[in-house]
Amino acid sequence: MDHTQTAEPTRRDFLFIATAAAGAVGAAAAFIPIIDQMNPSADVLALASIEIDLAPIQQGQAVTFTWRSHPLFVRRRTPEEISAARDVKFDDLLDPLARNANLPDNAPATDENRLNRSGTGAKPEWLVLVGVCTHLGCTPEASTATSRQGDYGGWLCHCHGSQYDTAGRVRVGPAPRNLDVPVYTFLSDTRIRVG
Amino acid sequence: MAGSAKRIIVAALLVSAFASATFAQETQAPPPPATPEAAPAGQSGAAAPAPSPNAPPSAATPAPSTEALPPKRMSWSFDGPFGVYDRASLQRGFQVYKEVCAACHALSHVALRNLGERGGPEFSLEQVSAIAAAYKVPADPDEMGKTVDANGMPLMRAATPADYFPAPYPNEKATRAAMNGALPPDLSLIVKNREGHEDYVYSILTGFGQRPPANEKLAPGMNYNPYFPRHQIAMPPPLTMGSVTYSDGTPNTVEQEAHDVVTFLTWAAEPKMEERKRMGFNVMAFLIGFTALLYLAYRRVWHGHHDVGAPGEGQG
Amino acid sequence: MQGPAYTPKNGFTRWLDSRLPIIRFTQENLTYYPTPRNLNVWYTFGGILAFVLGVQIATGIVLAMHYTPDSAFAFNSVEHIMRDVNSGWLLRYLHSNGASMFFLAVYIHMFRGLYYGSYKAPREIIWILGVVLYLLMMATAFLGYTLPWGQMSFWGATVITNFFSALDSLIPGFGTAVVTWLWGGFGVDNATLHRFFSIHYLLPFALVGVVVLHIWALHIPGNSNPLGIEVREPQDMVPFHPYYTVKDLFYLSCFLIVYSYFVFFAPNALGHPINYAPANPIQTPEDIVPEWYFLPFYAILRSIPNKLIGVLALFASLLVLVCVPWLDTSSVRSARYRPLYKQFFWIFVADTVILGYVGSQPVDALLFNTPIPLVWLGRIGTLYYFAHFLLVMPLVGLFETPKPLPNSIAKSVLSTTPAE
Fold first, then answer.
1. CA B31, CA A93: separation in Å to the nearest integer?
2. Domain B66-107+168-289 is classified in which CATH homologous superfamily?
3. Which residues of C touch A44 (CB under 8 A)?
């Protein structure tokens, strides 16, 4: 077919390139809402933060809440459980990192670092963990006064046998990491906000 | 050139004639909805069709025309392609809703957290939490699985920003029982749901207080409002001078209160309006520029090919 | 008529071409496809329709990720989309206004066909497939409008599904059985909504399939053109790319400006406020009206006082379109050269606009400030609608003296004096 060649091919090419570029930008911008609509909607994000009243929880008792579609373990530890966690030799731990969202990523997994010392001072009896096994996502079962789950007084995951201690740290695999400690803060002695 | 341009003009005239004929309805009386607002629930299920204003009267006196007056034409801060909500008016309007309207009208599609989001009243995080905490919503079942306390009252808890505005009554029957059979509509979408939109709602709120003409008998329990279809509305005048006291010192006349609550209700129906207009400006600017580029590219491609089909050329 | 043959240039394209000649197919049908050089703006609406179909499918699929097709949750899920879903308001308004834009484009496309005689031999099948596409569009739009489960959704569904109860006049009980089967209950209810959602999701893909057939049927004889004369020589044509790709893109961009105006600045102008109230089976709205693109057919339906005949008239007004290639007796294709038919064409356009106006008004309305019931205007409009197809098209073709046709496209384009 006859394409009339103009005397300035560069000017014509620039026009076509500019138009194509503008079109590509427009098409990409038009695609953003299509992709972004799959991100969590505003009502889902609103439930990303919950407040929990700690007063009804007795010493030695653990309660499971729902937070961001997952179980949230809140445990009020007995002094024996606290000292059991503190007596563990650091080198015996499978995962040396604290996995505490309130602390820097490289904080070591000491028992103190598994707590949140914000708000009203150190509260070693309160343990708040995301109840999702770090292996493949099952919900581990907690030891109680009458039923011991695993050999470390903490949690046992029945799916593949991972065991956690009284600070929620993994002691027997196949789970690779300690149970996560979420972002939370003490609003008062008896109230925390998670997330 | 002349032929195709003529056709486009004729087509455009036809379309605009059609459009103005259809959309002119918007400025005339809203068609009377057969809503239970005007009808106590003593009637059975099927709503009676509205009597035609031109129906021949049975008595000697002429039947009154009870078509609603066209709504008052107001100008709003959010009118037009660049309109935005007046932030202070939204906050005052929320106060009017909360202190006056919420006794009877739900706002179920609006969440308390929306009060703090961009494009709305934009209360601070602390204010939103405080506002939320003042509301009570049904609590989850307790450890025994009960949802009522020892006296049979539902267990309640303080609301959080994630909750939606609680309704004044739990269901339609409870509402009608408390309202002498009337059903105050949910206000979340009222501005979009009524012909005349914000002007209509404003006219209703400020249209009370007139004496009905002699040939319109007011049914018992009804109130006269000429802006409402059939002129009789079950809602008593909700706003008076001083219904609320504004903390910013704005005079609390009926007109001001109505203006503020209508602004608030417009936001409640269209919380994304500001974002929509902002994006619209950007999209239009891009498209106009892109169309211009495409036009130049088009002429460039077709240069020398005596394009009969180009705009302005051809015989139509 | 084929363009230059495609020859694969390298090893990979040779290998692919012998297994799945998709590049050859694209080159022959899109890149080199010979197209008459004189197509005007009215010929760009086919491409615009394909684009809008793509937009509707894309927005529809993402909306379906958030919508709940259950009568207890549907209305609230749409409000959830409008308020909470990221860009949900944008996707919803794109989809609802996209439907209106779809019909605007299809009406222009159909009127172009009627004006330029695009339906005439050998392009009858393209036209018939087009009518099928139009019917599928109408079904999809009707089903889609019920999904928000507003007052108009519910009552519009009730009125339209009740069409089939007119069959009771033919076979007692049959119509009611059909309607009950459609509803899945004793009235439009949850069961109806679920199945309407399923079919609404399905039909656009049927549309895509018929569009493929429509374009395939077009590519056999090739495009017609505004002169209505056959292509005679290679100078009559240009390759589709870049000539019509850039032209289609330009007019598409203009169309998008109109589309964007509605989406961003008047998103509810083409809809009805009543649909912002949840469906209430106990309370009928004062005036049940369909969306604007159905109004002319609504007027035809309401102009006939008999239920069964009114429904039949409605279906007949659509099916008469199928017969158009055989109703028009003229040997001249384009109305440019048919001075008498041209006038009747514009009268027909005005008739559809008038019917649309009648359909938008209450059934007992009067004609502006006169005491004439509007339904009489509707009856005249309906009669004229059928007269246009059944009388005007056959008779005008027989009696009119067409203008002399130009000899060739290239000569009429390239000559300095206009062919007119």
1. 75
2. Cytochrome c-like domain (1.10.760.10)
3. 84
